[in-house]
Amino acid sequence: MKNLPIVLSSIALVGVLFLFGKSFSGGSSKATKVVKTDSTGKKVEVEVELSRIAYINLDTIDAKYKKFQAKKKEFEGREKRINIELENMAKAIEKDLVNVQKKAQAGTLTEDEYKNADKRLANKKQALDKKRNSLGKQLLKDQDEFSKKYTKRLKDLVADYNKDDKYDFILTHMEGGSIVYLNESLDITDDILELLNSDN
């Protein structure tokens, strides 16, 4: 069987945007002046609020969050065992088929024996396909359930971390994501990682 896709990754979290605090409502947010063009085409100077932003590096979370790594290893082990089981079944079917073909070529197989062998091989192939589908679906389902729990746990923890409304936005970032530049002074990954790993 082709390798089952391990979907347990931060891809499911890409684009997740945590919005907290009282964005653009004054408070402790700073303001700056920018030049805009009004409806008459005249350039005017206006004051806009600056949001307080932080970000979490999901690549680092994935690599250092102990529960995530343990679960990932568990799923990879399951996938490997599934692949071995299905591969052994496929080899057994192939061996049976070769034996039937040899007997047919040697003329030692009666018509009834050939029909029975053909039916047996078809049933084995059907059983293999059914098991491949069943085990694959169950693995993907379990991975999806864990991914949802993982995402919820991260959101809840970040919400608690920001309960004092220190930030208006907490973004998630990973290699290859849509954010092309980040000020590393806004990185709160280590804080979140410490909370995740201390959570029993």
Explain the layout of strands and helices.
Elements: E1 17-19, E2 30-37, E3 43-50, E4 53-57, H1 58-64, H2 66-106, H3 111-161, E5 169-173, H4 189-198
Parallel strand pairs: 4-5
Antiparallel strand pairs: 1-5, 2-3
Helix pairs in contact: 1-4, 2-3
Structure description:
- A three-stranded mixed β-sheet has the order 1-5-4. A two-stranded antiparallel ribbon has the order 2-3.
- The protein has helices at 58-64, 66-106, 111-161, 189-198, and strands at 17-19, 30-37, 43-50, 53-57, 169-173.
- The chain has one domain.
- It has four helices and five strands; from the N terminus they run E-E-E-E-H-H-H-E-H.
- With 200 residues, the protein is an alpha+beta fold.
- Helix 1 runs parallel beside helix 4 (189-198).
- The model is unreliable at 1-28 (pLDDT under 50).
- The longest helix has 51 residues, at 111-161.
Report the helical percentage. Answer: 40-55%
Radius of gyration: 29 Å
Rounded to the nearest angstrom, the distance between the terminal CA atoms is 37 Å
Oligomer: single chain
Structural class computed from helices and strand pairing: alpha+beta
Strand content: 5-15%
Average pLDDT? 83
Keywords:
200 residues; 4 helices; 5 strands; elongated; disordered N terminus; 3-stranded mixed sheet; alpha+beta
Précis, in short:
The protein is α+β, with helices and mostly antiparallel strands and 200 residues long. Helices cover 55% and strands 14% of the residues. It has helices at 58-64, 66-106, 111-161, 189-198; strands at residues 17-19, 30-37, 43-50, 53-57, 169-173.
